[in-house]
Amino acid sequence: MNRRNFMKSLATGIAAISLPRCSAAPAKNRAAGKPNIVYILADDLGYAEVGCYGQKKIKTPNIDRLAAQGMKFTQHYSGNPVCAPSRCTLMTGLHTGHSQVRGNKQVGGAEGWKLGSTIGGQWPLKKGTVTVAKILQEAGYATGAFGKWGLGIVDSTGDPQKQGFDHFYGYICQRQAHTFYPNHLWNDGKVEHIPENENGDNVYSHDRISEEALKFIRKYKDKPFFCYVPFTIPHVAIQVPEDSLAQYKGKWPDPPYDGSKGYFKHPTPRAAYAAMVSRMDGDVGRIMDLLKELGLEDNTLVIFTSDNGPTFNGGSDSAFFESAGPLRGLKASVYEGGIRIPYIARWPGKIKAGSTSDHISAFWDFLPTCTDLLGLDTPEGIDGISKLPTFLGQPDKQKQHEYLYWELNGQQAIRMGDWKAIRKRLGKTELYNLADDLGEQNDLADKRPDMVAKMEKLFETARTPSEQFPLVRGAKKKVSLSNYKSIPKDNWKLISADSESKFNGKLAINAFDGDVGTWWHTEFKDNRPAHPHEIVIDLGKSYKIEGFRYLPRTDSGTNGMIKAYEFFVGDDPARFEKPVAKGSFKGASKSEVEVPFGVKTGRYIKLRALSALGGEPFTTIGELGVFGEE
Ligand SMILES: [Ca+2]
Ligand SMILES: [Ca+2]
């Protein structure tokens, strides 16, 4: 089935289920065998940070109980060693050689921290993406996400409520989740102000998020529901309420953390970190208690896992807790410690209690497992394989991956059977045999050139190029013109620019002539005008514009590189309404900067520069581009 037919079948699905969705049909859904799905995703929880995976210091009785009542996977992998791309693979069934999001790519600056800001966030999922949430939604599930999203801010194409979730509560921008006492969270696309945190650490966001997840389960108890709970802890900052801290205070030598490795300082960081894990464990327990209370235990598949390995900064102490167990590497690394994670599945009567599986699986298996569960067609071209046969105790029916693939910031990794290959920035391939070298200490590349050749071929073929997430960054100083192809500039015309440097040819038209080596520079002689500087361009016809690209001047100079900006789209070059995007570019760089925003239709664009990086009264643009469609 191709993608179009698949989308068509989704559409048909809507019609077929629209009646029961509007009337009381819970019994029918039950009979149709649609189990509820609760997917709990811890943030940065290491392979060995829960008791049932060998943790000795931190207590996780509820997660351990989940394992005792379900199946524990010893070889399950996250989608990526960091947050956003990992979650993208979970949602789309595609590994990071094929997925839209392959890194933590911020959009704009840290504006997401500001109350009600809809600027910032992470690179958004595209419109029309087939997500597991969408599939479940169309299959009649109530769908809710509670915690940290990181795949596009409110109003962008990646907004969770445009990607299959009926409800979203929590942090829409993952950077905002670097404090657990925020001044706001997001509730169904609206800002929920938390005034209690304006002058002190009073409302712990994790508690609110847990409460909302519980409310959702209660509200939709009579429907099949998909409750996705991407908890925000134990990711740093190390912050936890006193009642949890009390459990660990004074248990170990605990040197204070002075804040020098980022985030916030803490007087007893080890105790606080352990307390964060245990507090999250407590909420896993509350979710299980509620399922029991509502009589939903038997008809609910509960999955508990983590989005990547344990972290190394912000005062965390992964060495002290042996957070990755015997595995090499931590978060952000494609060694096992960065990607092998705890994974427990519980479904009484279907999944054998107290069982263990060494089936090799990954985040991108979740989507096809769900379609398999519901007897739906799996979208073509995805990388995942259903693990339902393993859940149901039929290992002989379980299809195996030929290999798993990851990439991040120039690192590539492949797991094929017992073999693991790693390559960094296209350098020499490392080769390990995990069967007898779980810690990836003994590089066998020189001994097995045959296997290295096989893996190196896969490093090329397992991925498609990504314009937004090139495998190796910074390799080229020059920006490729192909980056600017999205909306052709052949018919663009300059409407106005408030100033240009005529004497040396740095004219305003250089801002969109398709040449990275030419740029617009505002007048810099004696009569230099001050900010703001504006350029207005006619695109030749109307487009649905989804974002713009800014390439600063590409020589060694830096003056005039735009800092604060506002960007407008409109139908009248003389009158624009409020900006569709505003923010600041972070630092001087020869790279282009991309700023996606929600779709805005118009024929004219205006960029207004409010300040320059060096504080001088200039503006320069090497190349301006816009992306979107007709
Ligand atoms: Ca994470
Ligand atoms: Ca140019």
Structure notes:
The chain has helices at 3-22, 26-31, 61-69, 83-92, 132-138, 205-219, 242-245, 269-293, 318-321, 336-339, 366-374, 388-391, 449-461, and strands at residues 36-42, 71-73, 76-77, 142-148, 167-171, 184-187, 190-193, 225-230, 300-306, 343-346, 355-357, 361-362, 404-408, 411-416, 419-424, 430-433, 493-497, 520-521, 533-551, 564-570, 581-584, 593-609, 620-621, 623-629. A hairpin with a 5-residue loop joins strand 15 (419-424) and strand 16 (430-433). Helix 6 (205-219) packs parallel to helix 8. The chain has two domains: 3-10 and 38-405, 3-Layer(aba) Sandwich (Alkaline Phosphatase, subunit A); 493-629, Jelly Rolls (Sandwich). The protein is of the alpha+beta class and 630 residues long. It is 21% helix and 22% strand. It contains 13 helices and 24 strands. Mean pLDDT is 90; it is low at 1-32 and 475-484. The chain has a ten-stranded mixed β-sheet with strand order 7-6-5-4-8-1-9-10-2-11, sandwiched between helices. Strands 17, 19, 20, 21, 22 and 24 form a six-stranded antiparallel β-sheet that branches. Bound molecules: calcium ion (2 copies). One calcium ion is lined by residues 43-44, 83, 235, 307-308.
Per CATH, the class of the largest domain reads Alpha Beta
Structural class comes to alpha+beta
Estimated helix fraction:
10-25%
Shape: globular
Counted by DSSP, the helix tally is 13
Task: Give the spatial strand order of the biggest sheet.
Answer: 7-6-5-4-8-1-9-10-2-11
Main β sheet profile: 10 strands, mixed
> How many distinct beta strands?
24
- The CATH architecture of the largest domain can be given as 3-Layer(aba) Sandwich
Percent of residues in beta strands:
15-25%
Uncertain ranges: 1-32, 475-484
Distance between the termini: 28 Å
Q: In the CATH scheme, what's the topology name of the largest domain? A: Alkaline Phosphatase, subunit A
Average residue pLDDT: 90
The total domain count is 2
Radius of gyration: 26 Å
- Which ions, cofactors or small ligands are bound in this entry? calcium ion
